[in-house]
Design goal:
With 491 residues, the chain is an alpha+beta fold. The chain has 14 helices and 20 strands. It holds the Pfam family Mqo.
């Protein structure tokens, strides 16, 4: 069965496809959109609220965005850039809430202070330097710093409960942080586009992509129910399938995907809904990563709000499986190996022995070791209050590098064909938090002619579009205040 040709095919029912669909629906409402999700529901992989920490990644508390250089210096450009991107996402969400395209903002975003917390003289000295660099940045206005246990206990008592000794400690806090339920947001965005004409098909897997002579793409499909094969053609395809994106981009045969590999990292969290504990911790508190740990494994103790209920999450505890998706196949990793990416993948393995050692240690970690890691943040933690849950899979990008045979890249990367007919997203954190600017980049790269005509409408949705907020303090302040007011956030 060969269906009609659609303007846009979105593969994967996660936050990226949902965001791109919502942007297109407003910029080009006459375009037909078809969304495919292989599972029975959308937002069940990385966008599911229990498969991620729900941090609105804005560089406020994530120390891995500001590593200490060999000479001891600390540089803010990456943290500032990520905050710039998150502000774009906030503005778009605020626009959609104001236009009643999304439900009440508390259904997907809530104010939650973002903190960092370190111990030991060397780490305290690092945090002092980080604060000194950030405190005058316009996008980090209001950041506080303290080495006083009484002040830190006032910010969030759980960190100080049961803490003894004279070890130096330090923390920063900024009250303008957020907790985001990306599962709820994804479902609401997809509800908006389907209410306005887009079609969503679940339990349908895209098994292959083939470029046709007319420049369109043939999507080979298979339904889970009945195992029925069929196909559709699309003028533009976006592969937002999380860990499944690499295989589909490889199947498309575009040269831009050659040389890329994926390194899967699994994870677990400790979770509690004990009201007495939840009431004593209202923050997302990030620490420093262990030696060799990937950035996505930086330990943090987080307030989470899911379906209106608060809980606490600690982790993640990293691990390894060859699956690229939580509901994936054990053959995902070996099946992704190609002649054009095997050498970069081998080079990454040879040059990241600390990471491999760390992952082996995490796989062998006992329940007691996990509790001990939690007790570094919350000394009075008791085993019976916490349950271990499995998080989503993250697939870090491995690729060729001009200076090396291969490099392991942390972050997200857009891969787009030269003719703009297909694009996909690889990688992980900051991911969902920067979904709006990343999808705007997809539109700009794939529709350069149309994009110029879309810019006036984009500026209505995102008032700061085309402006560096970090260079314009007054604009930055007004921009966040406007988004915060609509989204009911602290400023």
């Amino acid at each position: 069965m060969n269906a009609k040709t659609v303007d846009v095919a979105l593969i994967g029912g996660g936050i990226m496809s949902a965001t791109l669909g919502a942007l297109i629906k407003q910029l080009q409402p006459d375009w037909s959109i078809q969304v495919y999700e292989r599972l029975g529901e959308v937002a069940q992989e990385s966008s599911n609220p229990w498969n991620n920490a729900g941090t609105g990644h804005a560089g406020l508390c994530e120390l891995n965005y500001m590593p200490e250089a060999a000479d001891g210096s600390v540089e803010a450009s990456k943290a500032v850039a990520i905050n710039e991107q998150f502000q774009v996402s906030l503005q778009f969400w605020a626009h959609m809430v104001a236009a009643k395209m999304l439900d009440a903002p508390t259904s997907f975003i809530n104010s939650t202070p973002h903190m960092t917390f370190v111990w030991g003289e060397a780490n305290v000295e690092y945090l002092r330097k980080r604060y000194a660099v950030l405190k005058d940045e316009p996008l980090f206005a209001g950041m506080e710093y303290s080495e006083d246990p009484k002040v830190i206990a006032k910010w969030t008592p759980l960190l100080m409960d049961g803490r003894t000794g004279n070890e130096p400690i330090a923390a920063t806090r900024i009250t303008a942080g957020t907790d985001v339920d990306y599962g709820s947001l994804t479902k609401q965005l997809l509800n908006y586009i389907t209410t306005n004409g887009a079609k969503l098909r679940t339990e349908t897997q895209v098994t292959g992509l083939k470029k046709l002579h007319n420049g369109h793409w043939k999507l080979s499909l298979r339904d889970s129910v009945g195992n029925t094969p069929h196909s559709i053609t699309a003028k533009f395809v976006f592969v937002g399938a999380g860990g499944g994106a690499l295989a589909l981009l490889q199947s498309a045969g575009i040269k831009e995907a050659k040389g890329f590999g994926g390194f899967p990292i699994s994870g677990q969290f400790l979770r509690t809904s004990n009201p007495a504990l939840v009431a004593r911790h209202q923050a997302k508190v990030y620490g420093k990563a262990s030696v060799g740990a990937p950035p996505m494994s930086v330990p943090h103790l987080d307030t989470r709000v899911v379906d209106g209920e608060k809980s606490l999450l600690f982790g993640p505890f990293a691990g390894f499986t060859p699956k690229f998706l939580k509901e994936g196949s054990w053959f995902d990793l070996p099946g992704s190996i190609r002649f054009n990416n095997i050498f970069p993948m081998l080079a990454v393995g040879a040059t990241n022995l600390d990471l491999l050692k760390y992952l082996i240690g995490e796989l062998m970690a006992s329940p007691q070791k996990k509790l001990d890691a939690l007790r570094e943040f919350f000394p009075d933690a008791q085993h019976e209050d916490w349950e271990l849950i499995t998080a989503g899979q993250r697939v870090q990008v491995m690729k060729k590098d001009p200076k090396k045979v291969g490099v392991l890249q942390f972050g997200t990367e857009v891969i787009a064909a030269a003719d703009g007919s297909i694009a996909g997203l690889l990688g992980a954190s900051p991911g969902a938090s920067v979904s709006v600017p990343v999808m705007l980049d997809v539109l700009k790269r794939c529709f350069p002619t149309e994009f110029a005509g879309w810019e006036p409408e984009i500026k209505k949705m995102i008032p700061s579009f085309g402006t560096r907020l970090s260079d314009t303090p007054d604009v930055a302040k007004k921009s966040f205040a406007a988004s915060a007011k609509t989204l009911k956030l602290s400023t």
